[in-house]
Give the backbone structure.
Amino acid sequence: MNNQQKNEAERRAFLTDYPAYGQTVGLDELRRRDFTRLDEQGHTYLDYTGGGLYAISLVEKHARLLEQSILGNPHSQNPASLASTHLVDQARADVLRYFNADPEEYLVIFTANASGALKLLAESYPFDDNGHLLLVADNHNSVHGIREFAHRKNACVTYVPLDPKSLRIDEIGPYFDGCQGSTNTLFAFPAQSNFSGVQHPLDWIERAHGRGFDVLLDAAAFVPTNRLDLQQVHPDYVPVSFYKMFGYPTGVGAMLARKEALAKLQRPWFAGGTVQIVSTKADLYIMADEHEAFEEGTVNYLNLPAISTGLQLLQETGIDVIHERVMALTAYLLTQLQRLSHSNGQTMVELYGPTDAKQRGGTIAFNLLDPTGVYFPFQQVEAEANQVNISIRAGCFCNPGAGEYSLTHVAEDVRRCVEESTTGDLFDFDAYRECLGDKATGAVRASLGLVSNFKDVSRFLDFLAGFRDRAADGRYAERGC
Ligand SMILES: Cc1ncc(COP(=O)(O)O)c(C=O)c1O
């Protein structure tokens, strides 16, 4: 059997094992029409958790709108300004509608990205001596960073550890008791891990509410391939980045916030657009209401109309169809990764997190092992993938917690090694890695999304099979968590 016949046989076996994939062929048409460049350039894109890819029709529709419109700064009342205000209001309403959020309950604050939304919350949340920030270890750094605001206000900060094998949390309940007697308590977790793809239970939201916590649900990695229905669950603060959902434009994110929870936040300053009145003589100011108090300066009014178009694309394509396809491919990829082995029987892949497709998304982290069980540096895997036009991600993906648990780092070792590798302000990462010994400091991540197909997964598996029976030669220095 030649390579082409082998791939065709594998494709048929895949379609038999995952019949639901056959109902997602509309996505093949979308790929042909709107993502022609992928196949034209022979590019296998597997970094959707890093950033979604844009449909060319999105860019064209946006360009047409700009061609035909006269759009001014929405802070004025002239026709150009009012035209922008109309489009921005429309985008705001479309975001609420897309997430099925009741406008009586939720509002949308536009930001530069999910991190911008998280910073708004971090600096405004009323942490104090009695405050408690409860974080699961499996968070993005832009969520972990909130703890610095909490520390500064002497709030209690506690972490929920992960099971090192499943990268899940068995029972959340006891952690709500972490800092007894606290008020102003905030619980932060991702709906989907950007490291392992684990989907943490959304019923934690109501459980946390029942224990008096406000809930930050980081939905950035979840919403590109999953339905988030804000009438089914009611998190207080929900950051998202739109480029992760439909690739275009970058530079626009949002925080969906429950109005009641938003009222609790205290802005640390005011800026253009966030105030009703400021007096220099009387040294006073009165904040604007609702989203206006949080949108500092001029919103990204030229790009915001493209959010409406992007959401429409997802709606027309169907998020459930996207989900179905991504999960069929994820299940197949997980199975095949676990079958890869060297001639001597040594398994080639050390997977991090769940080994099956239950309660997870299409993000998979792993390291490659050589026939003696030594890690291939993730940078080497990435560099070799680059050479064959496969885009993956390598490192720690800004999620040090999932990294530390999966790679079994120990707090004392991390502290000691950081100390030993730091001279003054200079941190020597190579020395740090050396100090950690044979532990990996990061991983390879493949993530699937909007127009992933069987060929992408198959090409990636063929690429990984190329490491069979090769020895890791340690040519690449690692950088990671
Ligand atoms: C789960 C999660 N949260 C937050 C972020 C931060 O998003 P951004 O870099 O767009 O601010 C990311 C980005 O990868 C993410 O995956």
